[in-house]
C-alpha cells in the first residue's frame, strides 16, 4: 500500500510545471499582434518610420529600374541605404534608452 501512495505523490510532483505555467500565464499580459505593434511603435517610433521609408525607396527604385529610369533608380537605391542606416541607428538608440531606463 505504501508503495502505491509513493507513486501517486511522485506522479503529482511531475505535474508541478503545469501549475508553474498557470502562474506565469496569469501574470503575463496577453496582447494581440496589433496591440504589440502599437506598443512597440510608441516605445520607438523611428524604427517603423525608417522601415517604411526603406521599403518605399526600394519599391520605387525597382519600379524606376524596370521602366528604364536608371538615374532615379540609383538615387532611390542610395536613399534606401541611408534609410537602412537610419533604421539601424534608431534601433540601437532605442535599445540603449530601454536598457538605461531599466
From TrEMBL:
The keyword Transmembrane helix applies. GO terms for biological process: mitochondrial respirasome assembly. Keywords: Membrane, Transmembrane, Transmembrane helix. It is found in: Mitochondrion membrane. InterPro entries: Hypoxia_induced_domain, RCF1. The keyword Iron does not apply. Residues 18-102 form the HIG1 domain. The chain crosses the membrane at residues 46-65, 77-99. GO terms for cellular component: mitochondrial membrane. This is HIG1 domain-containing protein. It comes from Gryllus longicercus.
